[in-house]
Amino acid sequence: MINFNRQNFDINFTGIKAPKSPLSFVEKIKEGLPADIFCKKINIPESIIQDGIDEKTFITARNFVMKSVRGVYPKESMAIINNGVIADLKVCKAHSGRMSAKAHALACSPRNNVVLIHSHPKTIAKSTCPPSIGDWETLRRFQGMQSMYVINSDGEYAILRKFGEALSDDKANEAMGRFMLGYIDYISKIDTPACREAAELFNYGSAFVTEGVDPSALIKHFGNLIEKIDHAGLTVEYVHNFWKKYAASMNLTYETNFSGLG
After folding, report:
1. What is the C-alpha to C-alpha distance for residues 22 and 24, in angstroms, rounded to an integer?
2. What CA–CA distance (Å, rounded) separates 47 from 17?
3. Is 145 within 8 Å of 179 (Cβ atoms)?
4. Closest CA to 151 of 177, 123, 131
């Protein structure tokens, strides 16, 4: 939980993701993909070699997570690969969920080499957000997790990979604060009601609390606004540019071939 402070605003904002990273899951998807599901040739990231994954294993995982975001009601899904072998496959109820107990145990062990491959649905603007700040926090917290892949409905990828030591909690707090302050500054320049209201809540939230507004209700409303903004595709460029600028200083490698991102 991170405290974002500005103008005496000391409310704990949580769940700020773009979009939300995978959190409660339902049954495994066991059926195969239709042969014609792919509409174009799909690239394979060369970096899978660094993660110890062969091409066949990556394609199996990628196809699985692609399927859930190509339907009428897109859902995120995830594949856990440990030491080059698929260890778990799960599909979310919607846009949020939690790793299974098995996956959690694997990711907690520093002896493992866990790669999390999951899907992000397209926004209303038909763009896809790269790994969210919540995805990064998941990657940072699990010692056995080395890489976080996001796959979109076209099979394109965006990747965060650790190098060196994970950031300390203090340094992570600084990075989260940098992300949020930049995020609020970014949306404050977008002329939509949701962006204006979210920026106002972040900047002047303490005033609302002083006037008797329930902090938990305020936090929930703020989170709903952020989800709406992100779902509209208004912050994809911000997230992409944040990783381009700051990934290396956070001991991360960032790469993507998402269409429309420079």
Report:
1. 8
2. 25
3. no
4. 131
Helix (H, G, I), strand (E, B) or coil at 233: coil
Cα–Cα distance, 132 to 241 (Å, whole number) = 12
The pLDDT tens digits for 71-111 are 788 889 999 999 999 999 988 765 656 788 889 999 999 99
Q: In whole angstroms, how far apart are CA 192 and each of 122, 137, 199?
A: 20, 29, 11
Q: Which of 124, 14, 139, 138 is nearest to 74 (CA)?
A: 124
Peptide bond into 19 cis (omega under 30): yes
Given a cut of 80, is residue 253 above it in pLDDT? yes
Nearest CA among 78, 44, 54 for reference residue 257: 44
Identify the CA nearest to 180 among candidates 243, 133, 128, 219. 133
Q: Are 128 and 260 in contact (CB under 8 A)?
A: no
The tally of CA atoms less than 13 A away on the side-chain side of residue 11 is 24
- Tokens 């606004």 sit at which residue? 225
172: Cα within 13 Å, side-chain hemisphere: 15
